[in-house]
């Protein structure tokens, strides 16, 4: 299997931002495991301006290092399984091309590009309750949405859907 190869000029300059989140994803045995916290980032990116989750990168106090994922294929299957399980994630907003195995300095990583969803499709949340599973991206952190923020998203989504219906049904 061939992997998309990315060249980074200076790996030491890696940093998280409003649109980039790194997760180690090594698991207890070092063979690779999806980190639970990545779904908070998925929700946060979808509910704000979108972003990328890169699995296989370790945070070291002052910076990051590329550790890679020994066997990424089972993790890819698990990602799609979770994304398509409505009891775990409210909505799959990813296309097949949004999740890739990439190779940097000879190490394989998983890259997930999460688009911002339209207001009419928000909130994207973890689990079955939007009030406890919705997140926003604030700087380089995922923040749980307050009850008030979720109500606003739900209200805006309804207004957007009603406006869209009126446009399609008007003469």
Automatic annotation (TrEMBL):
Q: Which residues belong to any copy of the Schlafen AlbA-2 domain? A: 16-144
Matching InterPro entries: Schlafen_AlbA_2_dom (IPR007421), Schlafen_AlbA_2_dom_sf (IPR038461)
Question: Pfam families attached here?
Answer: SLFN_AlbA_2
Q: Name one GO molecular function term.
A: ATP binding
Q: Keyword annotations for this protein?
A: ATP-binding, Nucleotide-binding
The keyword Nucleotide-binding is assigned to this record: yes
Does the keyword section mention ATP-binding? yes
Coiled-coil zones: none
Name under which the protein is recorded: ATP-binding protein
